[in-house]
From TrEMBL:
Residues 73-108, 118-153 form the EF-hand domain. The lineage of its organism: Eukaryota, Metazoa, Chordata, Craniata, Vertebrata. It comes from the Eukaryota. Keywords: Calcium, Integrin, Magnesium, Metal-binding, Repeat. One of its GO terms (biological process) is integrin-mediated signaling pathway. Pfam families: EF-hand_7. PANTHER family: CALCIUM AND INTEGRIN BINDING FAMILY MEMBER 1, CALCIUM AND INTEGRIN BINDING FAMILY MEMBER 2. This is Calcium and integrin-binding protein 1. InterPro entries: CIBP, EF-hand-dom_pair, EF_Hand_1_Ca_BS, EF_hand_dom. PROSITE patterns: EF_HAND_1 (PS00018), EF_HAND_2 (PS50222).
Length: 161
């Protein structure tokens, strides 16, 4: 992990990789993220940058890799998946978040975009299955409850991460 992280830095910064921050643009060159529809959200969620530039420290990079790992628990994976899908960082998945999530998964092209009616039906179905307290949003515990009923979640989450 240290070698991969330091290789993302300019040559002159590699000797101090433990104290350096890798810019988001370099993180996005990783093969695991290059074609990932959630690449920007992944950088945002794992970055501890005070500048809001989504750069990563070595510790941030290790956190990200640990969630990618096969040995990460379903609870850890679902916690980070929830944070990645919470596009407005408000602690809930509302209709707007769910629409963004579906658009990321299906692609933004005209040929793959769902119609307004299809999108509304899909979001309604998701909320009916997941929104236990019927408040129109999905919170972390509701999300984790749904995930716990899906044995394939951990393996499918590898596609997201």
């Amino acid at each position: 992990a240290y070698k991969r992280f330091s290789e993302l830095l300019p040559k002159e910064e590699r000797n101090n990789a433990c104290s350096a921050r890798v810019p988001k643009s370099q993180i996005l060159t990783l093969p695991e993220l290059r074609a990932n529809p959630f690449q920007h959200r992944i950088c945002h969620v794992f970055s501890t940058s005070d500048d809001g530039d989504d750069s990563m420290s070595f510790e941030d990079f290790l956190d990200m890799l640990s969630v990618f790992s096969d040995s990460a628990t379903s609870d850890i994976k679902s916690h980070y998946a929830f944070r990645i899908f919470d596009f407005d960082d408000d602690g809930t998945l509302d209709r707007k978040n769910l629409e963004q999530l579906v658009n990321c998964l299906t692609g933004q092209g005209e040929e793959s975009r769902l119609s307004t009616a299809e999108m509304e039906q899909l979001i309604q179905n998701i909320l009916e299955e997941s929104d236990i307290d019927k408040d129109g949003t999905i919170n972390l515990s509701e999300f984790q409850h749904v995930v716990s009923r899906s044995p394939d979640f951990a393996s499918s989450f590898k596609i997201v991460l």
